[in-house]
Amino acid sequence: MRGRLIICSFLLLSLNGCGSGSDFADLQSYMDEVRARPKGTIEPMPKFQTYEAFTYSASSLRSPFQPPVKIDLAVKQKGNRVIKPDETRVKQFLEGFNIETFEMVGTLAKDSQVFALVKGAGGVHRVRVGDYLGRNDGKIVAINEAKIDVIEIVPDGEGGWLERPRSLTLKERS
To answer: Looking at residue 22, what is its pLDDT?
Structure first.
């Protein structure tokens, strides 16, 4: 009991020593300096310009990432009303993607039939002559070691349809 009394009194004396020195001179000098500063030196808020809404009106124009197509109006092909896409045909999986997203990565041959390997649409796909590729009813008409030839059926803008040839060339490793 007597030991506890000595320990408690020692703790009280040591705690009393922590707060006994009122050494706040540095804090007092800082407060005096702040109070001595001239009033009204705060800069005014900057004036912000109001937001003006922007409407993108070029969405119907040619993509700037595609090469420009030069069309001579005198030599412009006229569409044909006989040629048109088959609306009753069941669409294949690869027709749901733009043909520009595909690249030829190789060929396979089994017996006398040649297949091409195209990369795009989330993987590598095997296609053959007669399959369809791209959103414009692109039918594969020829496959060789260097390229895939596709004929697309596109509107001519005047109610007719045009057959447009395209090729996917082999992309070698880089």
So the answer is: 61
